[in-house]
Amino acid sequence: MTTTESLASEYDEYLAEGRIWGLVDRERIKKIKFPRVPKEVVDRYLAIEDLTTSVSDVLDSLGIIGAVPASFLKPLAPGQRIVGPAVTIRNLVERKTPTQGYVDKDFIRMSTRDIYYLAEAGDVLVTDTAGDLSVSNMGAQSCTVAKSRGLAGSIVYGAIRDAGSIRDMGYPVWSSGVTPITGKFRIEAIEMNGPVTLHDVRVEPGDLIVADDSGVCVVPFEHAEYVIREVERIAEAEQTMAKMIIEGAPIDQLRPLFRKRYS
């Protein structure tokens, strides 16, 4: 079976299960089923205290551009952290003015509902609107659907709205900004579950998204287990070093640990 035939079969399967809204043309859905990092690996990430900083260091050691500072993707509410496989949407701006779209009663071509029903519990939605800060990619109703479907959170390279309502429902969101202006008749979901960009980081469906107060990291699917092993090793070494520093250990005992941490 070819890739196209497999995707068509998966689409029909999800349609029969009531998981296809049909708001986005099926040709724009690039993947439906794909490998995901096992939950036990996700849980190991969530057990790390300094999560994104540790992951960022290991990605650096692999030569992978994979971290976006909170300066560019801010958490809507402090103290939240998420880890989960990425599902993706890429948006483009509409050509027609939004007022004309309302007058013509156009079909609303921005849709997150489709992706929520293609997603699995624990997934993280990654939305790419090229960092546009003027119009909203999602609001409270969209996040209500996401939460009901069991998504872990959303990362929006663009703006959101209904910030207070989203905070109140406790759904984790990171975004480039906040706006009152709707994306209806202004942006269009051009592709789902294809590659997208977060600031300067590429994201593929199934990559592991790691986010906390410091920002967002993207761990390529094939590196997820190696990265957590290294992060756990580093965390153990730093706990040992912190204990020795508190106890007043001399520099000649600390120096080898420091070198090992950054080797």
Unreliable stretches: none
Q: What is the CATH superfamily?
A: Ribonuclease E inhibitor RraA/RraA-like
Question: How many individual domains?
Answer: 1
Reported for the largest beta sheet, the result is: 9 strands, mixed
- The CATH architecture category equals 3-Layer(bba) Sandwich
Gross morphology: globular
Task: Describe the model.
This protein is α/β, with parallel strands linked by helices. The protein has a single domain (about 5-220), classed as Glucose Oxidase, domain 1. It is about 35% helix and about 20% strand. The strands form two sheets. Strands 1, 2, 3, 4, 5, 6, 7, 10 and 11 form a nine-stranded mixed beta sheet that branches. A two-stranded antiparallel sheet has the order 8-9. The N and C termini lie far apart (about 45 Å). The mean pLDDT is about 90.
Summarize the structure.
This protein has 263 residues and is α/β, with parallel strands linked by helices.
Spell out the key features of this protein:
two-stranded antiparallel sheet; 22% strand; alpha/beta; 11 strands; 263 residues; 36% helix; nine-stranded mixed beta sheet; Glucose Oxidase, domain 1
